[in-house]
Amino acid sequence: MISAWRLTNPSQSVKERMATTYEEAAVSITITSLTDILAFCIGSISPIPAIQIFCLYTGVAVFFAYVYQITYFGAWMVLFGHMEAYNCSGTTCVPLQRIQPMKGPAFVVKHTPPPPTLESAGTSRRSNSSNTTDSNDNVNNSNNIKTKNLRQRNHAVMVFFRDYYSQLFSNKFCLCGIMVLYIFYITIAAFFCSRITLGLQKANIAKEGTMTHDYLTLFAEYFAETGPSVSIIITEPYPYWNSSNQEVLETMVAGIHDNENLKPRDYTDFWLDDYKNYLMNMNGTTEMPQEDFVSTLRDIFLKIPHYEKYTLDINFDGNEITSTRFLLVTSNITSTMDDERTMLSVRRFVDEYSEIIGVPIIAYSTQYVFVEQYVVIIPTTIQTLSIAVACMLVVSVVMMPKIAVGILVTISVASILVGVIGYMTLWQVSLESVSMFNLVLCIGFSVDFSAHVAYAFVMSEGAKLNATEKLSRALYLLGYPILQSGWSTIIGIFLLFFSASYIFRTFAKIMTLVMALGMLHGLVFLPAAMTTFAKIFQVPSVKREEARRPIRDQGHWKSIIQPFRSIE
């Protein structure tokens, strides 16, 4: 909105300038905000509760940010517009020079004069009548004199984008170079996407330098051979006193150890093994009536100091054992794939035996809080990103006057996502819940730069310009704001790279990639694609003499409504 305000004519009233500002900025802001909200709404369908909460919170925040931008922020622009009209100080709000505001038609110019040309003032335009030309020149000179002190100077960066940078895209060698650069970019990104690593290291949850972080780091380094234990829990009563049932349980325990990532049977901590040995030594048999079996277990066996550890493994309700557990010990867990494979194998096995014995059995480990994320993170990420890109395609096609440009914006968003995933892997960032938060953010931010540039390109349709001139207008309006937005964000999060928290460092890395690749696509790849495809689709060009005129001498830039009028 600030960029659109800069392009308005200072000789107009604040009301007219705000109307022009909203004409040029409101629709593109609506497109990007709508796609951001859709992206976060889609992210809220994730099966991971933390991501659901994050996406819902952020989606609501983006909605209110959009509402405040087109209302509250606009109101402040009006106030500062009046300050600008009266040449007030931005700090004290006091006029720097006492001026008497002009009244009547002399102050509010109804017809906006064209901006000054880059060519010499003596160069005259071609026209059908020299008298008409002289008359127009006199009117323009008169208006220029009246508004000389009110006219704003173009920022040097805006001029650079309009007069120099945009001209590179009309050079076929530059376009070929950009094509080679993009192939190089997407190839490396795709390669590292296939090498992505999964999982959040437990040590990264804690702040670096704390005892918790040091403990988890040392444990992963020196005790990887012996992993966390897995509890196999029989959740309902079962006749343990029956010898045939004891054999079924023994077969189950022996069968579950076929898993290569579990320690041998001797490492299993099962109370029934020791209790059967105790009964054999005491009575010569392991089969007893239920009451004797339970009372001996509870009142005698668990009172022996060596077997008190089993107290936490058995729940009693009178003379009935309501639930029990035994512990397995994992080993050789060197990757997240080992964790995932072990968990799925054990759970599949206990589900089968749960049907055999007719009692529910579950497998649980404290590590499974993380491992369960490994199972769903890739399909959830693919699903979320795919649906989000599809929704952006629909929004872009509907909101953009040119369908081809909407498709290019969607391709640009998909390309940025591939780049972020690939290069974050190169930056040693794994795919887990923390990085998935940031990828959902990436969906929203990645569309901003590309959508604004594409819409600005389409907005010039009614001005009868060729592709290069449309791009010149688009970059003149948005090149500088894109650089400001991208680099200010990168500078703002730069200190997070030095944070002791893994979460903050991950956020800084991914957000830096989003901003850098967003600027790369918005200012390099997408302009090259729009210029190339505009020529292929044979977008109507202008007369040679009009094309030779400088961009800022071709009249005031028509607003967003113009492309729709030209279509009608």
TrEMBL record:
<feature type="transmembrane region" description="Helical">
    <location>
        <begin position="510"/>
        <end position="534"/>
    </location>
</feature>
<feature type="region of interest" description="Disordered">
    <location>
        <begin position="113"/>
        <end position="145"/>
    </location>
</feature>
<dbReference type="InterPro" id="IPR051697">
    <property type="entry name" value="Patched_domain-protein"/>
</dbReference>
<feature type="transmembrane region" description="Helical">
    <location>
        <begin position="405"/>
        <end position="424"/>
    </location>
</feature>
<dbReference type="InterPro" id="IPR003392">
    <property type="entry name" value="PTHD_SSD"/>
</dbReference>
<keyword id="KW-0325">Glycoprotein</keyword>
<dbReference type="GO" id="GO:0022857">
    <property type="term" value="F:transmembrane transporter activity"/>
</dbReference>
<feature type="transmembrane region" description="Helical">
    <location>
        <begin position="478"/>
        <end position="504"/>
    </location>
</feature>
<feature type="transmembrane region" description="Helical">
    <location>
        <begin position="173"/>
        <end position="192"/>
    </location>
</feature>
<dbReference type="Pfam" id="PF02460">
    <property type="entry name" value="Patched"/>
</dbReference>
<feature type="transmembrane region" description="Helical">
    <location>
        <begin position="374"/>
        <end position="398"/>
    </location>
</feature>
<feature type="transmembrane region" description="Helical">
    <location>
        <begin position="51"/>
        <end position="73"/>
    </location>
</feature>
<dbReference type="InterPro" id="IPR000731">
    <property type="entry name" value="SSD"/>
</dbReference>
<comment type="similarity">
    <text>Belongs to the patched family.</text>
</comment>
<feature type="transmembrane region" description="Helical">
    <location>
        <begin position="25"/>
        <end position="45"/>
    </location>
</feature>
<feature type="compositionally biased region" description="Low complexity">
    <location>
        <begin position="124"/>
        <end position="144"/>
    </location>
</feature>
<keyword id="KW-0812">Transmembrane</keyword>
<keyword id="KW-1133">Transmembrane helix</keyword>
<dbReference type="GO" id="GO:0016020">
    <property type="term" value="C:membrane"/>
</dbReference>
<keyword id="KW-0472">Membrane</keyword>
<feature type="transmembrane region" description="Helical">
    <location>
        <begin position="436"/>
        <end position="458"/>
    </location>
</feature>
<feature type="domain" description="SSD">
    <location>
        <begin position="1"/>
        <end position="79"/>
    </location>
</feature>
<protein>
    <recommendedName>
        <fullName>SSD domain-containing protein</fullName>
    </recommendedName>
</protein>
<dbReference type="InterPro" id="IPR001036">
    <property type="entry name" value="Acrflvin-R"/>
</dbReference>
